[in-house]
Amino acid sequence: MCSFCFGLGDGYPWVRVTGEVDLASAPCFEAALASVAGPVEVQCGQVEFIDCAGLGVLVGAAESRGSVTLRDPSPLLLRMLDITGLGDVFTIVFTTERAPDSSSMDAVEASAGQREF
User: Fold this and answer.
1) Residue 95 clears pLDDT 90, i.e. is over it
2) Nearest 5°: phi and psi at 107?
């Protein structure tokens, strides 16, 4: 289950998503993004889980809007973007207090290469 909040900052809309973005919640996520016009910032620091359906919603929004900014993506979301190679599709920004240090980014990149079967 996920939830959404909306707002306007610096002249552009933002959508804050929290919780799990999966096959069941992706249509609601898509509707939330469709409810705002133009380039959008997605505040995603509280995304606990995202699957390919959720990533598909983000990619679709980036394609249709020309610009989607991901603010403070969770470590899980960063890892998913790295694994799928989708990081270049979005503008990714961090607030000062949420910015990962280089050691934590190294850990995210290193863990992306580890798989359990």
Assistant:
1) no
2) -65, -40
